[in-house]
Amino acid sequence: MAVNTFNPSRALRLQRTAFLPALALAAMFGLAGCETTNTSDAVIRIDKAQGSEENIASLTAVINANPRDPEGYNVRGSAYGRAGQFRPALNDFNTALQINPRFFQAYANRALVYRNMGQQAQAIGDYNAALQINPSYDVAYIGRGNVYRMAGQDDQAFNDFDKAIQLGTTDGRAYHNRGLIYQKRNQQDKAIDDFSKAISLAPNSPEPYNGRGISYIALNDDDNAFADFNHAIELNGNIAESWANQALVYERRGDKAKAARSYRHAIGLDPKYQPARDGLARVGVAPAG
C-alpha cells in the first residue's frame, strides 16, 4: 500500500502541511517592489495529541502484530513527528527503510523531520533518495524546493516547484511557493496567478491570500489586497502577518488610527514580529517593550 507523505486524509498520519505557516510582510510603506518572505519555516505543525500514550500504544500494537511491515513504522514515525518527538520519529523511519530501502515515502517523511530539526543537508539527501526511487514523487520536489528556497537558492527551488506542477500535483504548496519566487522576482502577475491557483486547491488556507495581497500591493491595487488580507484574518485570526498586512493598507490609505490598531493586534499575537513593530513606529506610536 502506497503511503502519501503526511496526508491529512489518513488517520494517525503526520498532517501534510498545505502551506508554510509564517508568512511575513516585507513590503514597506510606499515601496513599489513588495515581496512576501518566510521568517520561519515551521514545516511541522505540532499536535501533541499525536504523541499521546493512547495513540502511540495503538500504533505500536499494529507494529507488534506485523513487525516486518514498514508501513507501521512509517505511520508511527509520522505520529511522533507530528507531536514534535523527532528522535523517535527518526528511529521509526530508519526502521522502515531498513525493512524496505525503496520506501520513498519514508525518505520524504524523514526529510521533513530533518528539516524541522534544522538538518538541511540530511533533508536534501533524503529528498534526493526519494526522487531517485520515484522521479515522479511531487511531495519530494515540493519539500526539497522549500529547503532550497529557505537557503536562498531560488533557481533550484523554482525548478523543483515547477517540476511538481508539471507532474500535475494537486498540492497547493507548489503553486504557493513558486508564487513567492515570482513575487521576489517582481513578476507580480505570475505570482498572483500562482497564488490564485493555490487558493483554488486550498481555499481554507490563509497564506496564499496573504501572498496574493502583497503582490496586489506591489501593483498598487490596494482594494484587492485589502480584501485578501481581511479574508486571511477571517480564515485564521491568530496570524500576526495577516494583521500587519491589513494595517499596511490602512497606513497607505492614511488611516493611522486603524493602522495602529491592527499593528498592535499583530504585536499582541507575536511581540517579536518586526514588520508590525516597524509599522507601529511609522504611524507615530511607539511599540510597548
TrEMBL record:
<keyword id="KW-0732">Signal</keyword>
<dbReference type="InterPro" id="IPR050498">
    <property type="entry name" value="Ycf3"/>
</dbReference>
<feature type="signal peptide">
    <location>
        <begin position="1"/>
        <end position="32"/>
    </location>
</feature>
<dbReference type="GO" id="GO:0009279">
    <property type="term" value="C:cell outer membrane"/>
</dbReference>
<keyword id="KW-0677">Repeat</keyword>
<feature type="repeat" description="TPR">
    <location>
        <begin position="206"/>
        <end position="239"/>
    </location>
</feature>
<dbReference type="InterPro" id="IPR013105">
    <property type="entry name" value="TPR_2"/>
</dbReference>
<feature type="repeat" description="TPR">
    <location>
        <begin position="172"/>
        <end position="205"/>
    </location>
</feature>
<dbReference type="Pfam" id="PF13181">
    <property type="entry name" value="TPR_8"/>
</dbReference>
<feature type="repeat" description="TPR">
    <location>
        <begin position="70"/>
        <end position="103"/>
    </location>
</feature>
<dbReference type="GO" id="GO:0046813">
    <property type="term" value="P:receptor-mediated virion attachment to host cell"/>
</dbReference>
<dbReference type="Pfam" id="PF07719">
    <property type="entry name" value="TPR_2"/>
</dbReference>
<feature type="repeat" description="TPR">
    <location>
        <begin position="104"/>
        <end position="137"/>
    </location>
</feature>
<feature type="repeat" description="TPR">
    <location>
        <begin position="240"/>
        <end position="273"/>
    </location>
</feature>
<dbReference type="Pfam" id="PF00515">
    <property type="entry name" value="TPR_1"/>
</dbReference>
<dbReference type="InterPro" id="IPR019734">
    <property type="entry name" value="TPR_rpt"/>
</dbReference>
<dbReference type="InterPro" id="IPR011990">
    <property type="entry name" value="TPR-like_helical_dom_sf"/>
</dbReference>
<protein>
    <submittedName>
        <fullName>Tetratricopeptide repeat protein</fullName>
    </submittedName>
</protein>
<feature type="repeat" description="TPR">
    <location>
        <begin position="138"/>
        <end position="171"/>
    </location>
</feature>
<keyword id="KW-0802">TPR repeat</keyword>
